[in-house]
Amino acid sequence: MSDGHTGRDTRTMTGGQAMVEALIEHGVDTVFGIPGIQLDPLYDAFHARSNQIRLVHTRHEQGSAFMAMGYAQSSERTGVFAVVPGPGLLNAMAAVSTAVACNTPVLGITGQIPSYQIGLNYGIAHELRDQLAMSRGVVEFAERADHPSEVPQLIADAFRAMHGGRKQPAIVEMAPDHFAASAPVGPIVRAPAYEPPRPDPARVRDAAARLARARCPAIFVGGGAFGAEAEVRALAERLRAPVVATMNGRGVLSDESPLSYDILSGQEIWEQVDVVLAVGTRFLSTALAWGREREVEVIRIDADPLQVMKPRRPTIALVTTAAAGIAAILEALPGGDAPARDAFLAHCEAARADMLANLGALGPLPELARALRAALPRDGILVADVTQLGSFTRFSFPVYHPRTMLGPGYQATLGYGLPAALGAKLANPDRKVVAICGDGGFMFTVQELATAVHHRIPVVTVVLDNSSYGNVRTIQAESFGGRHIGVDLTNPDFVAMARSYGMAAEEARDGAELQSALERFLAADEPALISVPIEQVPSIWHLVKRPPSQGDVTR
Prior knowledge:
Layout: E1 11-14, H1 15-25, E2 30-33, H2 40-48, E3 54-57, H3 61-75, E4 79-83, H4 87-101, E5 106-110, H5 131-136, E6 141-145, H6 151-163, E7 170-174, H7 176-180, E8 182-185, H8 201-213, E9 217-221, H9 229-239, E10 243-245, E11 260-262, H10 263-269, E12 275-279, H11 284-289, E13 297-302, E14 316-319, H12 322-332, H13 342-359, H14 365-375, E15 381-384, H15 388-396, E16 405-406, H16 417-427, E17 433-438, H17 439-442, H18 448-454, E18 460-465, H19 470-479, H20 494-501, E19 504-507, H21 511-524, E20 528-533
């Protein structure tokens, strides 16, 4: 995007019209949401520009925001949702917090009570004591437009915040009387393109020298490395260094490359690593759970000057984008061939083989994952909710293209999978999209099956049915003497339920049946559901080194 404006003169618009014009100027073509009385003027403005903005109405505000998130995660474009204030926005905030976890540019537009009643606590419909304060407890940018003329600059500021360095969501609110009011509005201002800071040349030279002379270098990539795929590949091949992808970074380097490793294999090679380049990742588990923090030289590249210093100060910090930082290191590397590093790479390959063998022992999960990979095209998108098969695939599923393995990040938000997959499909109509859900999490947002049918969004949803919150049940079995507390579920007939919505559905009892059903449903290009009944399955978490979610009771 360039600086400037559309060239149109100041003209009279309602606040809602100004909001829609500003979204169009910033390239928004899809908005997810649910109308309501405080948003009526905004939705009327959407209707007037329906030739440029597609409105996808959903069955729950959380679904709207998750769809906007899946849209953004899979496309790098901004996802937008519009919901009523108060309970509507509160319903959406679980998804907004998930977008924070995944550094995803999601813009939430919401209403307010009438402007002259804000803060008076009368008890007006949808009133919160302080809606902006609530939003600011989750996102960094939350602001209100108090006049139609303020809208263009406010939306530009929101886009600058969402795309300026570390990507993040934002919230904008406006009172209904201001959405409806007409006033002169100046030219629509477009946010300038983000210009990353230049990395410090002396630090770049130091980083390049350390990587070049390292005996066992490794590159760790997270979601912040998307957009730098070519640079990551070039540096890995130049250094002959393994690239370890976090769950959010899968696909930065294709798994076709012999240098591509998942995070579980990364754990196993960590003991030999002497210099690590961490790109666009919080690097949390590595720093807090893997040990050797004083033995490994850590070089960090991150667009966020605060995050790059967490959780521990690195040896070298480069504050810039992944593409700019790696390009600078490549240019600064000394000439000549990289050291052979044959022994280290052989060790890495053996560690990967050992980890694959461990994963292969986890009951039916490997067979089901192989069926998914066989049925889904190489550029297809897999959206994994918080379920045991979802966790398995986020670690081990082969990924060949960027932004084709999506998950809810550290928030681990149940109910993410189905609506995020719908958003991803609308952003990528030419790609096949599959959602993996557990029976527990699926029921959090099950009503969005109606959205899929109504808007003809051809996503295939796979529901693993073991009549329980399976992850929690396994933890209780292993750590609490098998005392199952609040984890057993009574489920509907998922096949019958999906058919009642008007979509194709069937049951698959093993990997072969799952692959067959997936291939047929993906070819049909219509919304569909596959129910997979399973018993309790082995847990993957004993293989994962990470900071304890329940804290360290010895401290």
